[in-house]
DNA sequence: ACAGGACCTCGACA
DNA sequence: ATGTCGAGGTCCT
């Protein structure tokens, strides 16, 4: 999720290679996960914790709307959280009975609080108008730690402690019981002070400083380990659009439907147990998963037979090296996929997944000798990761995602052009053109 | 420790 | 109209 607070393509140092025009002043750009879609300009819809959400943001706030489950068997009312309308944006809610509209067309919930989460880097979060029980925990933590977290973040050592305000034993089932704003705060890891981290990385890395000015607000999502693991198993030797459609097929065929919104059905990611049957490999092959069908089926079986889902979640409590090597024992999980799971769902902020893009970035800007390397060997893989950990510190994985995002074709047009680095930019443009041609 | 190849599928491109 | 290539890797030799 990119926060466009200060840099959107209007400022002087933004270069519009593709004459790309923003559709909306505060568009959160592509989330680098396969489960969110932009349903209307600036508004993203997706499934999280077995419920459908719409989210969007303004400069300071993250807005959200949660849809009730398709069939809530337990009879409890699913939270129907109101949002503050943006520019009279009208959201059609499936079950909309608890809302009324004022004359501006803004939706307001009878008898209750406005929900908005301030995304302004956690510690300055004061705008939550009526915190729920779950939210209070974060706020207490935040206010208590305010000084120390600022201080430690200056040294790039920000605080594993902040992450512990998320209960690391929470499985998906536990998460579903939380208040919606608590779920989102956890998912976007809003208690991690991003701007302090950016300052730290920028102070140590000129290339980061240059690139990151156009890519503020890039956060690592705290995703469910099961969903994340199987999604990344699909990613091997594959392209993004096909990965997304494969994840979608997994959900539609093996996950339960959670809601119908705007005439579309939405499905939860299937539990591991839904993927263990012997028949699954063939079924997936017929759906076009190729050799990954076996990886998925085998890994599902390995987890349920040799371990448990709790074991997978429990890797959050182990250290990075242990968690990674445990993951790599699974079928279809090599160093890169293991690092992705570590970083994006197991709280291993120092994990740096090295794929072909990161390899190229490292070769271009950080480790020139890589230009001559023919393939990404285990040794080089570790060397690249260690280099970035050394340079960026304990949140190296978060820093890496900023450069990775900037390297994606769809974001190239946002890169800054500075006179002093013209040759380099020309190279980037050439590279960009090359990719445009191929794809 | 490293290089090389197979592996599924599907667009894009020649 | 067909063939080739490569995409956010992994596994095996």
Automatic annotation (TrEMBL):
Region (Disordered): 99-118
Every HhH-GPD domain range: 234-401
Transmembrane segments: none
GO terms of biological process kind: base-excision repair, AP site formation; nucleotide-excision repair
Keyword match Lyase: yes
Annotated localization: Nucleus
UniProtKB keywords: DNA damage, DNA repair, Glycosidase, Hydrolase, Lyase, Multifunctional enzyme, Nucleus
EC category name: lyase
This protein's GO CC annotations: nucleus
Chief localization: nucleus
Keyword Transit peptide: no
EC number: 4.2.99.18
Domain of life the protein comes from: Eukaryota
Recorded catalytic activity of this chain's protein: 2'-deoxyribonucleotide-(2'-deoxyribose 5'-phosphate)-2'-deoxyribonucleotide-DNA = a 3'-end 2'-deoxyribonucleotide-(2,3-dehydro-2,3-deoxyribose 5'-phosphate)-DNA + a 5'-end 5'-phospho-2'-deoxyribonucleoside-DNA + H(+)
MF terms in GO: 8-oxo-7,8-dihydroguanine DNA N-glycosylase activity; class I DNA-(apurinic or apyrimidinic site) endonuclease activity; damaged DNA binding
Record function comment: DNA repair enzyme that incises DNA at 8-oxoG residues. Excises 7,8-dihydro-8-oxoguanine and 2,6-diamino-4-hydroxy-5-N-methylformamidopyrimidine (FAPY) from damaged DNA. Has a beta-lyase activity that nicks DNA 3' to the lesion.
Entry similarity comment: Belongs to the type-1 OGG1 family.
Protein name (database record): N-glycosylase/DNA lyase
Species annotation: Pinctada imbricata
Shown residues in whole-protein numbering: 31 to 469 of 699
């Amino acid at each position: 999720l990119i926060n466009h607070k200060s840099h959107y393509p209007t400022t002087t140092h933004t270069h519009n290679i593709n004459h790309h025009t923003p559709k909306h002043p505060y568009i959160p750009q592509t989330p680098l996960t396969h489960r969110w879609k932009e349903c209307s300009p600036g508004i993203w819809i997706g499934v999280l914790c077995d419920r459908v959400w719409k989210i969007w943001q303004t400069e300071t706030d993250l807005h959200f709307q949660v849809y009730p489950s398709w069939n809530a068997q337990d009879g409890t009312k699913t939270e129907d959280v109101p949002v503050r309308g943006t520019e009279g944006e009208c959201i059609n809610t499936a079950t909309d009975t608890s809302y009324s509209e004022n004359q501006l067309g803004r939706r307001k919930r009878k008898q209750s609080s406005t929900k908005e989460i301030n995304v302004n880097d956690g510690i300055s979060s004061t705008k939550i108008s009526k915190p729920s029980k779950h939210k209070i925990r974060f706020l207490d933590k935040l206010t208590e730690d305010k000084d120390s977290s600022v201080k430690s973040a200056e040294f790039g050592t920000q605080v594993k402690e902040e992450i512990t305000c998320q209960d690391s034993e929470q499985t998906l089932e536990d998460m579903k019981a939380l208040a919606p704003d608590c779920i989102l705060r956890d998912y976007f890891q809003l208690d991690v002070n991003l701007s302090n981290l950016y300052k730290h990385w920028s102070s140590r890395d000129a290339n980061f400083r240059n690139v990151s000015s156009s890519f503020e607000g890039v956060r690592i999502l705290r995703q469910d380990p099961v969903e994340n693991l199987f999604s990344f198993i699909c990613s091997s030797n594959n392209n993004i659009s096909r990965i997304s459609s494969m994840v979608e097929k997994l959900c539609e065929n093996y996950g339960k439907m959670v809601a119908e919104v705007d005439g579309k059905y939405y499905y939860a990611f299937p539990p591991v147990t839904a993927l263990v049957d012997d028949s699954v490999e063939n079924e997936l092959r017929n759906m076009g998963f190729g050799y990954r069908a076996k990886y998925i089926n085998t890994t599902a079986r390995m987890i349920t037979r040799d371990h448990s889902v709790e074991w997978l979640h429990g890797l959050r409590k182990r250290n990075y090296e242990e968690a990674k090597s445990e993951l790599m024992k699974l079928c279809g999980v090599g160093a890169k996929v293991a690092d992705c799971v570590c970083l994006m769902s197991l709280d291993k902020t120092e994990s740096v997944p090295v794929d072909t893009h990161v390899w190229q970035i490292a070769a271009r800007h950080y480790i020139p000798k890589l230009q001559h390397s023919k393939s990404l060997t285990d040794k080089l893989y570790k060397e690249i990761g260690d280099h970035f950990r050394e340079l960026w510190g304990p949140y190296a994985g978060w820093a890496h995602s900023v450069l990775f995002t900037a390297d994606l074709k769809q974001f190239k047009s946002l890169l800054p052009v500075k006179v002093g680095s013209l040759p380099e930019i020309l190279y980037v443009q050439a590279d960009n053109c090359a990719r445009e041609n191929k794809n």
